[in-house]
Specification:
Largest sheet of chain A: 6 strands, mixed
Bound molecules: guanosine-5'-diphosphate, magnesium ion
CATH superfamily of chain B: Ferrous iron transport protein A (FeoA)
Number of domains of chain A: 2
CATH class of chain B: Mainly Beta
Largest interface: A-B, 38 and 28 residues
Distance between the termini of chain A: 50 Å
Number of helices of chain A: 24
Order of helices and strands of chain B: EHEEEHE
CATH topology of chain B: SH3 type barrels
Strand content of chain A: 5-15%
Structural class of chain A: alpha/beta
Largest sheet of chain B: 5 strands, antiparallel
Strand content of chain B: 35-45%
Strand order of the largest sheet of chain A: 2-3-1-4-5-7
Shape of chain B: globular
Oligomer: heterodimer
Distance between the termini of chain B: 15 Å
CATH architecture of chain B: Roll
Number of strands of chain A: 9
């Protein structure tokens, strides 16, 4: 699978006698969990609507028959109001051997409304009644046999996260898929007729007994009240940041740096020295920009601790269902800059990586929202790898400088947002969003998710980083860096007040965001220079992968705009800051 | 009376509402029983409970939802 599922709209090729199974249902009912348990494939799941914005396909081999299982984006109806919903509708039209329609047992009515729409198409269907553990806690019980009778198809109770009922689900799916299909006459129903039918079925099969709300229910309610929701939001976000910054610094100082300095570097240097005489090759391997030194130090010892801790926090926030609640609190603020509360989710994802954030905008209904989020994330939201580099660069010398850079990023988002809001035509959508149950995240789901993301980071970062470092080493060893440095001198030294060698960061920063920061670590910079260098990197081009995604999701024109604007803004703002600071007497 | 100006935590019945597909799919339609769980400062969304679940509804939309009290 591609590292980030960028999902083209075509189906993957599959053997003609393969069974084709669609996993469908409302958003946030556990489809992706079921998919990854059945196929053993890594897909990301989260506790809010819109995590799966394009499909993922995988293979299941069961009872000596192989099937293609497709995780279709969730929809509330088959009316296709967003690009993600359109994908689902298209799949249904293409047809399948069987559809597994996943129902959220904690919200039967709304799920049945979609189930009936799917049932009325001409495709064999079975139902997975998922989240029965949560339903039980809420005092909701559902009579499965009666529901089967009403729906005229198998209903299998499941707890996807704990693998309960999934084997049953496969058994029934195989039975239905291998049977000769009986033609079903498609039924047309009006909204009202369908809701009446839903009401009748729910009445018959569901008993809701009043339970005292659990701790998580009460917390879930409190978090959307301005008080205590807002103070709690500040506490939660501050603690999250302290955890990532403090934890990362601690890990590096106590564990990683000693290993690097006392064991790894001496060992690798003497190993290489044993085989290779001093000279260019030796320096390329273990010199100032030696691939075997920086190529290991930067990704593993410098960036990885922050990336890991960031994803720990983010996965927790996602799986608990907190982010949409934060969105509700921030909606009126975001509206001032043309965004809405539900955009908090892709924006926060952008602090992880811009790629899933931009893909995640497919769940947004309007093109304006998609453009705004994409531009803001590309301009002023540092990804986790870049944040790691900022913390490593600034954290030791001046925590204040670190805070300052993030304040600038934040203010830039507000200003750029309100400008874009005026420039991009269209109205901001009204907010209309389901509030997910607040759930205690399961440790196994969390660790799997963190693991997937770290793996993705390393797979994506290591090769470009090594190539970037090799490029740097060649420039340094051949003296070319000095030539380029002289060429860029007016910009780098004159305007930005940085040493010539900092031009290396500008070149590497095109490849990956953190590479626009890391070379600065090798120079002895004053606090002012550190801040200026960080500001350039913050606004500078997003990495090449992001540019590719922008071209793919939008068009070449937008990506050229992004390249142009980010570069101009980066040099203008950072340079102005430098000039003003120097006038005021800072060094 | 409109939903936007109704009290918190008191059930009411929707009498009329704007024709927005997503509202209908989320289960808000004529005759649904709902209650407001929270509202935000500066015109932020209302959190409305319907059945066992909550939905965040833009204040502008809530201003167009006509409701009646239940006793
Ligand atoms: N407690 C519990 N949580 C579940 C169950 N199934 C899924 N989840 C959680 O519900 C959330 C939504 O799951 P996901 O697969 O992303 O939903 P999708 O949008 O339908 O793909 C995730 O946080 C899952 O960990 C279940 O049976 N029990
Ligand atoms: Mg999903």
């Amino acid at each position: 699978m591609h590292c980030h599922n960028t999902g083209s709209r075509k189906l993957p090729p599959s053997a003609p006698d393969d069974i084709k199974i669609l996993l469908m249902g409302n958003p946030n009912v556990g489809k992706s969990v079921i998919f990854s348990k059945l196929t053993g494939m890594d897909v990301l799941t989260a506790n809010y609507a819109g995590t799966t914005v394009s499909y993922t396909a995988g293979n299941v081999n069961y009872r000596s028959k192989s099937a293609t299982l497709i995780d279709v984006p969730g929809t509330y109806s088959l009316e296709a109001t967003s690009p993600a919903e359109q994908v689902a509708v298209n799949f249904l039209e293409e047809g399948a051997n069987v559809i597994i329609c996943v129902l959220d047992a904690t919200n039967l009515e709304r799920n049945l409304n979609l189930a009936l729409q799917i049932k009325h198409k001409d495709v064999p269907i079975i139902y997975s009644l998922n989240l029965i553990d949560v339903a039980e806690n809420k005092g909701i019980s559902i009579d499965v046999e009666k529901l089967e009778e009403e729906l005229g198809a198998p209903v299998i109770p499941t707890v996807a996260t704990r693998n309960v009922g999934l084997k049953d689900l496969l058994d029934r799916a195989w039975e239905v898929a291998l049977k000769e299909p009986v033609a079903i006459k498609p039924v047309q129903m009006s909204h009202d007729e369908r809701w009446q039918e839903v009401g009748r079925i729910a009445e018959k099969v569901q008993v809701v007994e009043h339970r005292h709300p659990t701790f998580w229910d009460k917390l879930g309610d409190a978090l959307v009240q301005p008080f205590p929701g807002l103070p709690l939001a500040i506490i939660i976000l501050t603690l999250s940041m302290l955890f990532v910054v403090g934890g990362g610094q601690g890990l590096r100082a106590l564990l990683l740096l000693p290993i690097l300095d006392n064991y790894y570097i001496p060992a690798i240097t003497s190993l290489v020295a044993y085989f290779i005489p001093e000279g260019i090759l030796f320096n390329l391997l273990v010199g100032e920009y030696g691939v075997l030194i920086k190529g290991i130090e930067w990704p593993f010892f410098l960036i990885l601790p922050y990336v890991t801790l960031f994803y720990v926090v983010m996965s927790f926030l996602e799986d608990s269902g907190y982010l949409p609640r934060l969105g509700i609190l921030l909606d009126s603020l975001l509206r001032r800059i043309g965004m809405l509360g539900s955009n908090v989710v892709p924006m926060v994802m952008g602090y992880g990586c811009a790629v899933p954030a931009i893909l995640g905008t497919r769940a947004a209904n309007s093109q304006k929202q998609r453009l705004m989020i994409t531009s803001l994330v590309a301009l002023a939201v540092p990804c986790t790898a870049q944040s790691g580099a900022f913390i490593a660069l600034l954290g030791d010398q001046s925590i204040l400088a670190l805070v300052f850079v993030y304040m600038v990023s934040f203010v830039a988002i507000l200003i750029a947002g309100s400008i874009l809001n005026r420039v991009i035509p269209g109205e901001t959508d009204p907010m209309l969003m389901e509030v997910p149950n607040l759930l205690r995240p399961s440790v196994s789901a969390l660790s799997q998710k963190i693991f997937i993301r770290i793996k993705q980071f390393l797979l994506e970062a290591e090769i470009p980083m090594v190539l970037g470092i090799l490029f740097a080493a060649v420039l340094v060893e051949t003296g070319l860096l000095l030539v380029i440095g002289d060429l860029l001198k007016p910009l780098v030294e004159g305007w930005l007040g940085l040493p010539k060698e900092a031009s290396l960061a500008l070149m590497l920063g095109i490849v990956r965001r953190e590479l626009g920061v890391l070379p600065l670590l090798e120079l002895e910079l004053t606090t002012l220079q550190l801040i200026v260098g960080s500001l350039v990197a913050l606004f500078y081009l997003p990495c090449v992968t992001v540019m590719a995604i922008i071209i793919k999701e939008f068009n070449l024109k937008l990506s050229i705009y992004v390249i142009g604007f980010t570069t101009i803004i980066a040099f203008t703002l950072a340079g102005l800051f430098n000039q003003v600071a120097r006038l005021l007497g800072f060094q | 009376m409109y939903l936007a100006s109704y009290e918190n935590n008191k059930p009411c019945i929707i009498e009329n509402l704007p024709d927005i597909n997503l509202l209908n799919s989320l289960g808000l339609r004529k005759g649904s029983k709902v209650s407001i769980k929270s509202r935000q400062f500066f015109g932020g969304p209302l959190v409305v409970q319907i059945g066992t679940r909550c939905v965040a509804i833009d204040k502008k939309i809530a201003e167009q939802i006509v409701i009646k009290e239940v006793h």
